[in-house]
Amino acid sequence: MTSQTTQTEPIILEMRSITKEFPGVKALDNVSLRVKAAEIHAICGENGAGKSTLMKVLSGVYPYGSYDGDIVYQGQVQQFKDIRASEHAGIVIIHQELALIPELSIMENIFLGNEPTKRGVINWAEARLRSLDLLARVGLREDPDTPIKEIGVGKQQLVEIAKALNKSVKILILDEPTAALNESDSQHLLDLMLGLKAKGITSIIISHKLNEIEQIADSITIIRDGKSIETLNVKADGVDEDRIIKGMVGRTLESRFPDHTPNIGEVFFEVKDWTVGHPNVADRLVCKDSSFFVRRGEIVGFAGLMGAGRTELARSVFGRSYGRFIDGHIYKDGKEITLKSVRQAIDAGLGYVTEDRKSLGLNLLDDIKTTTVAANLRKISHNSVVDLNQEFTVAEQYRKSLRTKTPSVEEGVAKLSGGNQQKVVLAKWMFTDPDLLILDEPTRGIDVGAKYEIYGIIQQLANQGKGVIVISSELPELLGLSDRIYTIFEGAITGVLNKDEASQESLMKLMTSARKADAA
Amino acid sequence: MNALKKLFGGNTRQFGMIFALVALIVFFQIATDGRTLTPGNVINLFNGNSYILILAIGMVLVIIAGHIDLSVGSIAAFVGVTVALAIRDWGIPWYAGVLLGLALGALIGAWQGWWVAYVGIPAFIVTLAGMLLFRGFNQFVGKSNTIPVPADFQYLGSGYLPEVGPNTGFNNLTLLLGIAAAAFVVVGELRSRARAKALGAEVPEMWVTALKLVLICGAILYATYLFATGRPGTSFPIPGLILAVLVLIYGFISSRTVLGRHVYAVGGNRHAAELSGVQSKKVNFLVMMNMSILAGLAGMIFVGRSTASGPFDGVGWELDAIAAVFIGGAAVTGGVGTVVGSIIGGLVMAVLNNGLQLLGVGADLTQIIKGLVLLIAVAFDVYNKSQGKKSIIGLLTQNFNRRQGPSNPNQPDETTSTKEAIAREA
Description:
The complex is a heterodimer of chains A (520) and B (426). Chain A is of the alpha/beta class and 520 residues long. Chain A is built from 18 helices and 24 strands. In chain A, a hairpin with a 2-residue loop joins strand 1 (11-22) and strand 2 (25-36). Chain B has one domain: ABC transporter involved in vitamin B12 uptake, BtuC (Orthogonal Bundle). Chain B has a two-stranded antiparallel ribbon with strand order 1-2. The chains are: A alpha/beta (520), B mainly alpha (426). Chain A: Residues 13-250, 269-515 form the ABC transporter domain.
């Protein structure tokens, strides 16, 4: 591996004026990319800018001939006709959605499609030895026989990298590698990338998390609207997050959060001693004696590491849609209420926007107007016959007020970008006119410009006197948005901080320790 | 082309199927020297396929919800034999027999729906078991004998609209029905157009609407003419009438009611539906139960048509119904499909069957051709979708879609990978 660094040519990969057209649209317009050997090169851009398309061109998903321009790799023009060809050359892409088979073991996944064989029979002994070595290199201490489904996303990511290393990778492409990872897994992954760099492996990383890019990248290429805007040298140019954002959106964002003066009323929603069991594991608790309250017009943040039980808490309160209810009380407007189903929760004035837009939040086959009214069909139907005119009017109204970018409300939601999909989901819940809206990772996978708009919508809801709970893994987001922040650790609420006393450090401390805030 | 697409409500797939159906009819009309579009043959076509089309109505809902029902043939046979026996042995009148059959269908449906919705057994397994179970019941109850039904019950499966009023040379009721249907279509279309316009939604040009109405009404009136001029004693068949009523009811339920929306929602993304307050178990239960009720009805119509119930009634029906639904544009993964599409899909198969028979093609070749048609119809669609195109017609019209707006729908989204898109559409 170290032989790579001795290469005289410092540029390992050059993509020269790549243009890729889809019917009716230029996804990439004359994009150029120069990657030096053994560097970490980040590609930044808003959603839809063309980052993933560029990587698909590089990795042969879009074969040679389907695009214009040249890929020069190790001094030669390449003509990859599929992913296998690019992998053979040492370019391996790890997609956002991991390509692992949950039922197979770590070892079987590492060698999938690349099995060490002896006269056509798989040599499992060799596979085991090699996988132990690979796992050590990525710093994953797991038995190679463990099924993939039994390890977390962070570890699965490492298995993907081990799989890539097994293919003697020279350029490793990671598409949003830390999107689904918690803080410590992310850090581990970033450290691993630095380690690989030291061993001469070049990495290309696509990420929305600009702080991570700032931390590890050597160069940054910014893509906007299918064009390569600039390539920054992180150290020489003294690049920081604001500089990257400026390049991505083509303007400076004065503030990442809209101005907002909270107008907070009395406590109207309260959960006490909420205890919920894991849906499958008998003795495991996902929520332990959690109590919290929300005031009218208040934005309440829930901070916690991934897997801390934030989503579990929210979903179990929202009509027991997760886990086994064990104990607890919900009070709304001073009266105790029992919510045994999602229907009851919606009727009681609750709304829940899920963190997983695609698999839990949307029916991707639906169009915008059907989605907008899906949670409150009763309001637009008479004798259970849906009034299609009203449906159209309602959807139009929300399209305008939320500024959803779409040619029409008849458009399928699958065709929208992440930010616009999220606006449609928000419209769906706003149409149920909830008193309390729970937003689980409301800006995940959404680009900077759309985030700002979503924040505005959230603040607007609070201004209307609704209570809003925001669950987020991004602490700056919680700090910028919330009036009060609860911290959750291992299913229990470990503290609550007001806006003025909260900081990343104080939150992180509470998010990683079981101590109650008042005990500290 | 864009206008042509709008002609059929923008549903390109359905348009493709209508186009295929018309082409098929024209082809056979020419190939058989005009024997396809004769009153006798068209009446025959409807009589011989109405029960399959009725099953297709139920089946498309089952498939939209993401399930399948393999037991419909056996249930039809079991209900048929039970009703035939009840009428013969207990002497109950024909209408009581029909009610009994529907009730039995509902009971069986509740049984299957319970397993699917509340126990969580995949419908494939539940209905595979049901297929064996109710076939066995049919032969056990009927002792594998043929049981005749009286003439008034036969009316259900082989009756025609009666002759009333003055002698016009046509069957008056059929004529009336055809004109009413045409008027219904015209008024409905114009009203929805006016409403859409009032809301500021995009409406097709007036000539497009007019052309559409002329074509549809022309087809309806021509069919009316055929049905009304059959040999004496025949006219629009009763099974066809039942079918038409069911298509109207179920078409309305699936597209316009809350329950219909919920069926699509559960099939499209069950988790998302549940988190929006849809009671998916109830929906699954009702969809499975409804299928069995319709299977019972189909079984009774068949018994009426063949004048007796037998031990092998309904063998293979489930496959015909499923084929109709998939040719009609439904997706195996659920969430996609329409009642009207399935009827058209069923008619494509029926016309094919009938035309090949008229041409004297043997049963062996007919099966081969039908199998290939099913495969190619669906394969072509899957292929086009995997290429990011909508369908045959989508392919033809894609150049015209460009001017629809600044944000182009074909643009690949960062967060929607092709892989995902294929998996979703397949």
